[in-house]
Design goal:
Shape of chain C: globular
Order of helices and strands of chain C: HHHHHHHHHHHH
Distance between the termini of chain C: 11 Å
Chains: A mainly alpha, B alpha/beta, C mainly alpha
Keywords (chain C): Cell membrane, Membrane, Transmembrane, Transmembrane helix, Transport
CATH class of one domain in chain C: Mainly Alpha
Low-confidence stretches of chain C: none
InterPro entries (chain C): BPD_transp_1_N (IPR045621), MetI-like (IPR000515), MetI-like_sf (IPR035906)
Largest sheet of chain C: none
Largest interface: A-C, 46 and 52 residues
Number of domains of chain A: 1
Mean pLDDT of chain A: 84
Subcellular location (chain C): Cell membrane
Distance between the termini of chain A: 37 Å
CATH topology of one domain in chain C: MetI-like fold
Membrane topology (chain C): Multi-pass membrane protein
Shape of chain A: elongated
CATH topology of chain A: MetI-like fold
CATH architecture of chain A: Orthogonal Bundle
CATH superfamily of chain A: MetI-like
Strand content of chain C: under 5%
Order of helices and strands of chain A: HHHHHHHHHHHH
Number of strands of chain A: 0
Oligomer: heterotrimer
CATH superfamily of one domain in chain C: MetI-like
Radius of gyration of chain A: 23 Å
GO molecular function (chain C): dipeptide transmembrane transporter activity
Radius of gyration of chain C: 24 Å
């Protein structure tokens, strides 16, 4: 007899529940014009990245020696061309695929792993907590940029390596937030009441802890997406992320650096994309934080 | 599934606590060594008879709540034994089995309900995970019984209820496990007086109806007197006196008990307390006083009091009334007898 | 206070050991053989083995770690595979340059961040606040390596005011405090300052806003104190946290300048690190990261101790 099973049996109750919290969140979020705008922009970027092949764009890999570094507004190339004569508009939209993927997946993985570690540490306490949290402390000794570059540098370039190294970078902060949220919930009487009712640790975590800590951890994780995106593109910019000739904003920014004397504004475009995305992710996270009533 | 069977018969105490001990280490210094120990509960023994209400009183910090949590295994025992209806915990029954028979209601009605669950889910949680039949139906019935109409209240969240209503939910939640013993840890202390009275009446009715036994912990002596059959007085992690409520309220044997009751506000304006009966705060439980722990505040203290620890022993002919004071024992070396000293 | 200091020191020890283990393992998570970069392609098996034992790579891992950490403790971080020079010397020079850049950036970032944050906190929920918050969030959202490029485009390429690369004319490498050298410092320092401006401003805004809404500040106003005197109380309460945030930011600047140093060819630790990565010079990579991380740990320690020294609330815990 699990809680989930009974919930499924009684849809009426579930509606009442959803109404209680998530509808409130949605209502508050929809009244925040900045957050909504940012959500729309991020959504559009993701959609454009996914459906890039169907948008009738030029081939992002097709180079042309005679059409190199054309300015913005050049016929046939609305945003100009790069140092190999490839269409910038196509490369920027296609570039969202890898940049967003490598920029967001690490936070998703770190959210899963970090929350689990933090929940275990916070609920178990004692020596389990000590082992997990002292290990986490070691990683806090590295500024995140340094840690990402160190691991990526050692592992070598590549999409998977970038995701692995960034996941490692973001596990410790998420674990720390999860641990502190869990141990404060753990100290409340309703957990004692549930233990007194004979619930085992897993059941209590599932029914009584998760619902009360996942919100704050999730909001915190969303606040990391912007940094993660910047770092992911930064790794490619350094040449230890995505490999050429794939279109990726950080990598494009790097290869176009030599072009700043010829056609500076085209060279700055990939960075602008990173900036817009990261700004929107940050504002979106702030909006979520206030909509979900999560305090710092 | 019905209530657990009464197996030991009416004369077998429902719960016997034997020499319960719990010390909390204080760590400090350079290497986080254990530098001191809080003697939160230090050798507490008592028994709870079937169907009675045992009140536990004492100043804050005397170990009442720790004792409560020890009895239900929320805090691990350092030493001692808990015997539930003749079954020794850890030998004859497991903690899980004990918890089927013993439930608890906490002081903070808000903190003891999960804010993300409806009150119906909160009440149904225990029966559900213990595989009882129809947990939701049971929860609805209990909500109704504690005065919360299920159709109106079942799907509310804790923050949508008043403090008294939340405490009714907590009572329903405890009863949903079909316990035989309910520990009420300051369960009405945070409520307004009028609400408190209603909840107390509800508790009395439920006791009759379900044949429950209560351990009622409170710092409010009036409330304890109203509801309890017997009263146990604690001081700094030890039992100093235990006996029938009437005896404790009118015929105290221990100087601590009598000063505690002297501090009780009187209804009679002519019967005013002239001097503060109990000066200062209780001593630090990290380094409790030697001998009788009360000797630092006791006006009858003599050298024997700091030298030897008095035993809990029967007073006069009354088998049910015990106190731990050297003045009870003519052979202790104390120059006075408490009864005389008090007069 | 002394006990706190010693306890904090003891607490740092396991972290420092953990950090060194991480740096040591870094070489071993690297795919391939660390020797391939320097080994001639046609080396015989014997030559390979000789090389391996020369670098100590034939011993078991814990022994390798013990040898490595023992040497590191005496300041010997091994030899760079690419240049053959001692790693410690190279790292020392590079860190000096990075520190210079980090200090310059903090000199720009902290006053501006504090000022903006204070203003926003004082005028909370006004148009001021909203503008400054917007600036702060832009600051933390901007990829600074891109901002560096944009600044180069504007101030070097378009306007020709400031140099775009290196740490001095002619790439001499020797730093001196004259106008000619400082011109090289401006763009990288400004670029590096943007993120900490945002972070400091956000923190201080929240701090000051919270303190102003506290009862004791209301009581000070009620007592008839002038706003300027109330301010003194507010600053005293905000100082410990603000200082600790700034201290941490200084540490971040040192480790986080890697990308900026690449953009501006600044001969600092980040520049060294990216060279080490591309030449697969693992001892150099290892040594640089170890030094930077230990510096960061030390910075944390100093910040904590300073904070405890000025904040009476901390000592007890």
């Amino acid at each position: 007899m699990s809680m989930a099973a009974t919930e499924a049996k009684a849809p009426a109750e579930q509606v009442a529940k959803t109404k209680g919290y998530w509808s409130g969140v949605l209502k508050r979020f929809s009244r925040d014009p900045v957050a909504v705008t940012c959500a729309v922009i991020v959504l559009l970027l993701i959609l454009a990245a996914i459906f890039a092949p169907y948008l009738g764009l030029n081939d992002p890999y097709k180079a042309s020696m005679i059409k190199r570094l054309k300015p913005i507004g050049f016929p046939g190339f609305p945003l100009g061309t790069d140092e190999q004569g490839r269409d910038m508009l196509a490369r920027l939209l296609y570039g969202g695929r890898l940049t967003l993927f490598v920029g967001l997946m690490p936070v998703v993985f770190a959210f899963g792993i970090g929350s689990t570690l933090g929940l275990i540490a916070g609920y178990a306490g004692g020596w389990v907590n000590t082992i997990i949290m002292r290990t986490v402390d070691v990683f806090f000794a590295f500024p995140s940029v340094l840690l990402a570059i160190a691991i990526s540098g050692a592992l070598g370039a590549g999409i998977v390596n970038s995701i692995v190294s960034l996941t490692i970078v973001f596990i410790p902060p998420i674990a720390r937030v999860a641990e502190s949220a869990t141990s404060s919930v753990r100290a409340l009487d309703y957990i004692d009441a549930a233990r007194a009712s004979g619930g085992n640790a897993l059941t209590i975590i599932r029914v009584h802890v998760l619902g009360n800590v996942l919100g704050p951890i999730f909001v915190y994780a969303t606040s990391l997406t912007s940094v993660c995106m910047i770092l992911a593109a930064g790794l490619s910019f350094l040449g230890i992320g995505v490999r050429p000739p794939e279109p990726e904003w950080g990598l494009m920014l790097n290869t176009l650096r030599t072009a700043i004397y010829v056609n500076p504004w085209v060279a700055a475009l990939p960075g602008l994309m990173i900036f817009i995305t990261s700004l929107c992710l940050n504002l979106l996270s702030d909006g979520l934080r206030s909509a979900m009533n999560v305090k710092d | 599934m019905t209530r657990q069977e009464d197996r030991g018969g009416p004369r077998q105490p429902l719960l016997i606590a034997k020499d319960l001990k719990r010390h909390f280490p204080i760590r400090s210094g350079l290497l986080n060594r254990q530098t001191a120990t809080v003697h939160a509960v230090d050798g507490v023994s008592f028994d709870v008879k079937k169907g009675e209400v045992l009140g536990i009183v004492g100043e804050s910090g005397c170990g009442k709540s720790t004792t409560a949590r020890l009895m239900i295994g929320l805090i691990e025992l350092d030493d001692g034994q808990i015997i539930f209806d003749g079954d020794v915990l850890g030998e004859d029954i497991t903690l899980k089995e004990l918890r089927r028979g013993v439930q608890m209601v906490f002081q903070d009605s808000y903190a003891s309900l999960n804010p993300r669950l409806t009150i119906l889910d909160s009440v149904a949680f225990g029966p559900k995970i213990n595989g009882l039949e129809d947990p939701e139906g049971k929860a609805r019935n209990l909500l109704k019984r504690v005065g919360l109409e299920p159709d109106r209240f079942a799907h509310r969240y804790p923050h949508e209820l008043s403090g008294g209503q939340r405490q009714r939910v907590n009572i329903a939640r405890a009863l949903a496990m079909e316990p035989r013993l309910v520990i009420l840890d300051e369960a009405v202390s945070a409520l307004d007086k009028s609400v408190e009275a209603q909840v107390l009446n509800l508790l009395n009715e439920l006791r009759e109806e379900f044949g429950l036994t209560y351990i009622f912990i409170s710092h409010d002596l009036n409330v304890v007197r109203y509801i309890s059959d017997r009263v146990l007085v604690m001081y700094l992690g030890e039992v100093v006196e235990v006996g029938p409520a009437e005896a404790i309220y009118h015929n105290q044997a221990h100087p601590y008990t009598s000063s505690l009751f002297a501090a009780m506000p009187s209804m009679d304006p002519d019967n005013r307390t002239e001097e503060p009966p109990l000066a200062g705060d209780p001593p630090n439980p990290i380094n409790p006083p030697s001998g009788c722990r009360f000797h630092t505040r006791c006006k009858f203290a003599e050298s024997v009091c700091s030298a030897a620890k008095p035993k809990l022993s029967v007073i006069g002919g009354d088998e049910t009334h015990l106190a731990a004071c050297h003045m009870m024992d003519p052979a202790s070396g104390h120059s006075q007898s408490f009864r005389e000293a008090a007069e | 206070m002394f006990t706190y200091l010693v306890r904090r020191l003891i607490y740092v020890l396991p972290v420092a050991i953990g950090v060194s283990m991480f740096c040591f393992l870094l070489v071993h998570i690297a795919p391939g053989d660390p020797l391939t970069a320097i080994m001639p392609v046609d080396a015989t098996a014997e030559e390979q083995a000789a090389m391996r034992s020369a670098y100590g790579l034939d011993k078991p891992m814990p022994v390798q770690y013990a040898i490595w950490i023992g040497k590191a403790a005496t300041g010997d971080l091994g030899k760079s595979i690419a240049t053959g020079r001692p790693v410690a010397g190279e790292v020392f020079l590079a860190v000096k340059n990075s520190l210079l850049l980090a200090f310059a950036a903090s000199l720009i970032a902290f006053p501006i961040g504090l000022f903006l944050g204070f203003l926003a906190g004082y005028f909370r929920d006004t148009i001021f606040d909203r503008m400054i918050t917007a600036v702060a969030i832009t600051g933390v959202s901007v990829p600074n390596y891109w901002l560096g490029i944009v600044l180069v485009i504007v101030f070097s390429v378009q306007l020709g005011w400031l140099p775009s690369m290196g740490a001095g004319p002619g790439g001499s490498g020797e730093w001196s405090w004259d106008l000619e050298h400082i011109r090289y410092l401006v763009l990288p320092a400004v670029t590096l300052a943007v993120v900490p401006i945002g972070i400091v401003a956000r923190t201080v805004r929240a701090l000051v806003g919270d303190i102003f809404s506290m009862d004791f500040v209301q009581a000070l106003f009620a007592k008839g104190l002038y706003p300027i005197d109330v301010l003194r109380h507010v600053i005293r309460n905000a100082a410990p946290t603000a200082l600790s945030v700034m201290g941490l930011q200084l540490g971040y600047l040192l480790g986080g300048s890697i990308l900026i140093e690449t953009v501006f060819n600044w001969p600092g630790s980040g520049f060294l690190l990216s060279n080490a990565i591309f030449q697969r010079d693992l001892p150099l990579l290892q040594g640089t990261i170890l030094v930077l991380a230990l510096f960061f740990v030390t910075m944390n320690l100093i910040v904590d101790v300073l904070q405890a020294a000025i904040d009476p609330r901390i000592k007890r815990s």
